[in-house]
Each structure stands twice: as structure tokens, then as C-alpha cells.
Sequence to fold (539 residues):
Amino acid sequence: MSISLIDIEELMPETIIYNDYFGEEEIRKTNRMFSGTDQRRHVGRDELASDYLSTAAMRLIERLGLNANNDIDMIVTNVSIPDEPFTGCGAVINKKIGGKAKWIFDIHNTGCISFLYLTDLVHTYMKAKDVRHAIICVAQTAGGRIFGQVDTRQMAQAAIPGDGFAVAYLTNNSERPFLTFEFENYPEFSEDMVSSCKGRHWWESRESSGSIDFNENKSAMIIGRGNKTVPRMIKKVCDNIDILHTQIDYLITNQPNANFLRNWREAISLPPERQLHTFPQYANLFGAAIPVNLATYIKNKTIKPGDLICMAGFSHACDYSASALIRWT
Amino acid sequence: MPLMPGSIENLTGLRRVETTNKKEMGGIMADITHAVYPHEQIYGDFCPVHSYINCPPEKVFEYMANPYCLLEWTYSMRKFEPISDDGLFVGKDRIGDNTDIYFKVKSNKEALTVDYHCAWDQGKDLWMIYLNRIIPAETVLKKPGSVIFWQNCRHAYYDNNPYPELAPPGRPWVGQFWDFFYAGHMVELENLKTILEYRHLNNLPMGPHV
Fold:
């Protein structure tokens, strides 16, 4: 495939939030769905996703010796809680890096697996519009934006999301190509995760902060969906290039909780050291998990030239799922 | 008030709604729920197989309770003859070379259970027990037909033949095949389903035809 992942940079908020910041300590201690993480990062009130993403992009520009005017044709973003409701932040990033990208898309769906959907979007534009270079920007901001609020942080679920940012640089060549992708949408599950504002719509004036309603009555079904879907998607991409899933050197997924991480690894018979995640220190990074983990483990030299990396996951209550393989040449 | 002897209040480790709230229970269940389970964990000590058969429970019972049906649906039990008045049969299990298999059928029409008590090489100690329960599918699946639960338990004799002096020289012991029991029993249960559905759905005599 002629889309290559050339470099990737993660950027984490400096503010470390420890477990004692959150309420419902007893529930978090006894309910294993809310445990397994010691720390997470939160964005500050006045910090913007576009600040973090443009800073990370500038690091890539400097490291790769790029000219922001000529070497970035396309910017695609996914920001879990957007800086602005209407405009998206792609154009703001373009402004902050001094770029002249022509194609900019702020994609609001595909959450935890958005990195792969955005990659596919870039790939499509590379084929259709001769896009040569693109940056993919993924931001998780729900930690500070939603679960750092005084009333919301008292909920057990507040301890699980953490914030993080990553930017990847992709080119239209075969320097370090993605080998294969798989994507699936399950419309029947598209309304199983919704915002919850205590009886108000999220756009209405209200006195309480919002949170996420994961629909506890459906938790067994959602666990079942995730358990079935992600291993199946991993096996699909392996089938695409005729390899066994045990030949994957490293698995990187979204990291909703410790159980899913365990179950996905077990389902493809990988030992723990071949699953790369940052759940204990960064918690659930939503869509940023896959690119942040990839960047983190490239930076610390765990991922070495020649390693075959599988990225996979599902979003929300399993409305989207995707997987991909890349060899880190 | 003193606790009653044997009261559950004395027991630690019980998970009951009075002591384990629903939130905690949710976490415990999520933890127990995996995407895949090792074969050993599911079939290590017990080997359950089950199937739906489109044939009424009474017909399934009549067929399975007839010892000679085993000549039709088992993979390898052949050439039976009764050898006592109390229902003991002997035949050949062709999975082992020159192996005699002894068995009795113990069934209960009211409970719709049919158990096969078997052993290789001798008929005095029938320790290899195949437990079958037939359930009207109408009650559990709301459709005509039967559901069959077939369960084996890993008796200690599977690991060590208690009567090695009776075994033909060089013949592998039945317990060596325990890890194939799920597969073997599924194949045989498919045989049973195929035979019963063929005869029932075509209004043929149910047999066994031997």
C-alpha cells in the first residue's frame, strides 16, 4: 500500500491526577472495571487541543526537517471533546504551524479507533487527490473537560479517562507502508453510549456538568461485543496478508480498561510483553491510545526495525471497529 | 442471637446481594468474563456437550434408552450381547484393538435421563459414566424438538487403569483420549442428531434398526 507512517509524536498534559482526586473510592477499589490505573493526565481549563496538536506537529516538523508550507497537504483530526462546537480545530492547527494544507477534515466519529479511520481517509485522498503528505491529529480531552469538574469527578467512572495527544506524519510512498486495513460499522450499537446531563440535553443550560452514560444494563453485552469484535478484526488483517496472529510482534489497541486489554491479548495468544499499552499511567486515552502508545514505545526503543505491529480496537459501545498491520522498517 | 450451626453467616467468600453490592458484582463478573478460555479450563475435569435435535423428547428418550441404539450412533461400539439379567451388556469398542466394553443403560422416563455406565475390559466396576438429559425444546427454546445435555466427569480411573492386568498388551488406555473427548462426543452427538431427525422428519420407524 502506498501510505507510509513516517513518524509519530505524543504529547501529554503535565498535570498528573492521582486516584485520590476522585470520589466513590470504595466502588473503585472493589469494582475491577474501575481499577488498574494509578495516574492519568488532565488538560487544563484554558488549554486547547489545537495547542497540544500544533506543538506535537511542530516537533515532527523540526525532527523531520519539513517545510510546513510545502510538506503538509492535508490535516485530519479527531478531538473527543472539541475546542469549539462548530469549527473543529484542523484549520487552527494549520494556522499555528504556519501551514498551507489544502484538505482539512475534523472527524467527530470513530472515537477510540479514529487513528485508523483517519489513516484510511488520508490514504483515500492520496489516491484520489494526489495528496503527498498529511498529518493525523488525535486528541483525547474528556478527562479534564468532563471528569475534572467538581461534580463529575465524584463518579467512579471519572477515574478512568485520561487525556493525551498524538500527531503522525504520513506520506504517499512505500517507505514504511501500512500493509492492510479492516473497518466495520455496527449501526445497531450506535446509540448505546450517550452523554448524560441529568435530564437536560447537552446543549441546554444546566447547573451540572455532563458525563457519559455507558448504560450499565448493557455492560455485559458491550463486554461481549468487544471480546468478540476486536480479536476477529485482528485475525482478519492477519488473514489479509496470510500470517498467523501469533506472528504479530506487538499488539496496540485502545485501552478502555484492564479487562479488555487482558481479553484481547489472550484471544490472540500473545504474552503480556508483546502487548504495548500505557493504561496504568495514562488510563483510558480513547482515540489517542493507539497513536500515543505507538509513539511512546517507538521513543523508548521497545519497537525495533522489522517489528510487525498490529493496531486494533473498537469505539464507544462498539459502533465502529478497525484493525491494521504495519511493519516498522 | 446466636448463629445457627451451619448458617451461611459463618461462611466467608459467599457472593450474595446482601454483602456484595451490584456495582462490585459487576466488576467481578467482568473480571471472570474472558474473550477466550483455554481448552483445559472448559474440558479439563468435565466434558459437557449439548445439541438441539428436531425430534420430540419422547422419541429421543425411547431411542436412547434402547441399548442397541449405541450400535448406530456411537463411533465405535459394536457387536453387543446381553450377559446377565440385570441389563449388563458386553460388546467391542473398536477404538481400542480387541477391546471389550461392558455397559448398562440406566434411564428414567419421567426425568428424561439416559445414563450409560460403562467400562473397558471388565463389567464389575462400571466407572465410565455418560450422563444424558433430554429436555423438551418447547420449554427452553420455545420450539418443537429436544435439547440434549451430555456430560462426562473425569473419573480418577481415566488417569490410571485400575485393572491393568485385564488390558490387551500394548493397547492405549481410554484416559489417554480425554483431551479428544469433546471432539469425539460432538461427532457422536451429531450422529445421534442426524439419525433421529432423518427418521422423525420422514415418518420412518425410529429404530434402532439392528
Remarks:
- The radius of gyration of chain B is 21 Å.
- Residues 181-201 of chain B form the longest helix (21 residues).
- Strands of chain B lie at 46-53, 77-82, 89-93, 100-108, 113-120, 128-136, 146-153.
